[in-house]
Specification:
Blueprint (H helix, E strand, L loop, with lengths): L4 H10 L4 E11 L5 E6 L5 E2 L1 E4 L6 H13 L2 E17 L5 E15 L9 E7 L9 H11 L10
Parallel strand pairs: 1-6
Antiparallel strand pairs: 1-4, 2-3, 2-7, 5-6
Length: 156
């Protein structure tokens, strides 16, 4: 899927200069307690399912949309996990972004996990004790989900 049209249009005006963008990130668990991950086509690393919200899009439905678009999995939001700032991130094409991520704990509803767009090289479920290497922020998000007490995480 690549960058949303509104970002492509902004990039025509500002080139690779930093952008502050609203993002979503989900820790999707299945009934066996495994977590859904995608191997990103831009970096080659495994990651939680993430996305950029469209202008005016609500975070919960936006994440559910992203999960389906990227993995063909239908998920439902269970809890707001937290809000974090991530970045700056420099992408392989030179674009620089900072993200305000709204993070959710999600539950698998239906579908077979598979690559469903061009953002992933692979998609799979992983047992918590058998995760592939993850960036620290993604691993921390999973750890927060596992220890979730009902109080959303944010820097105080």
């Amino acid at each position: 899927m690549g960058s949303p049209d509104f970002i492509v249009n902004l990039r025509k005006k500002i080139a690779h200069d930093p952008l502050w963008l609203p993002g979503v990130r989900g820790v999707v668990f299945d009934d066996a307690g495994r977590v859904l991950l995608g191997e990103r086509s831009d970096t080659g690393g495994w990651a939680l399912i993430t996305g950029i919200l469209e202008p005016g899009e609500e975070p919960g439905p936006g994440l559910v949309r992203e999960i389906f678009e990227e993995t063909a999995v239908v998920a439902r939001i269970e809890h707001l996990l937290g809000v974090t700032a991530v970045g700056p991130v420099t992408f392989p094409n030179g674009d620089v972004c900072d993200f305000l991520n709204v993070e959710f704990i999600c539950r698998y509803v239906s579908g077979t996990a598979r690559v469903n767009d061009d953002e992933s090289l692979a998609v799979d479920w992983f047992a918590i004790d058998d995760l592939p290497p993850l960036r620290p922020g993604h691993l921390a998000c999973i750890q927060r989900a596992l220890a979730f007490t009902g109080v959303p995480y944010f820097e105080r």
